[in-house]
Design a protein that fits this description.
- The protein starts with 22 loop residues before the first helix and ends in a 71-residue tail after the last helix.
- The chain has one helix at residues 23-33.
- By secondary structure, it is mostly loops.
- It contains one helix and no strands.
- The radius of gyration is 45 Å and the shape is flat.
- Residues 48-75 have a biased composition (Acidic residues).
- Residues 1-104 are annotated as: Disordered.
- Residues 76-96 have a biased composition (Pro residues).
- Residues 19-31 have a biased composition (Basic and acidic residues).
């Protein structure tokens, strides 16, 4: 069965009144809302950054050519065990037609 159109209906819910906060919570909130007394801080003048002395470039020592390391002999490959032949998945057994016994 197919429908030509579908009507969607809904009802608007009225907002629930907010529960009255407990007095304990109010007092904590009031304490948090009190502005902290501002401490008068004298503005500190920013110190001018001293120019860093440029380091003198050190003369590069002459590099002696490093002797090339001798190539390490390659380790002999480990014998790979031959994979065991897995049991081949058997096809579904062919169902043999069962002779039906006729009840008399």
């Amino acid at each position: 069965m197919y429908y030509d159109s579908i009507e969607i209906t809904y009802t608007e819910l009225e907002p629930e009144p907010a529960p009255e906060p407990k007095r304990e919570l109010e007092s904590k909130t009031e304490l948090q809302l009190e502005p902290e007394p501002e401490l008068e801080l004298e503005p500190k003048p920013e110190p001018e950054p001293e120019p860093e002395p440029e380091p003198e470039p050190e003369p590069e020592p002459e590099l002696e050519p490093e002797p090339e390391p001798e190539p390490e002999p390659e380790p002999e490959p480990l014998p790979v065990p031959e994979p065991k032949p897995e049991a081949e998945p058997q096809p579904y057994p062919q169902l043999q037609p069962q002779p039906q016994l006729l009840q008399t």
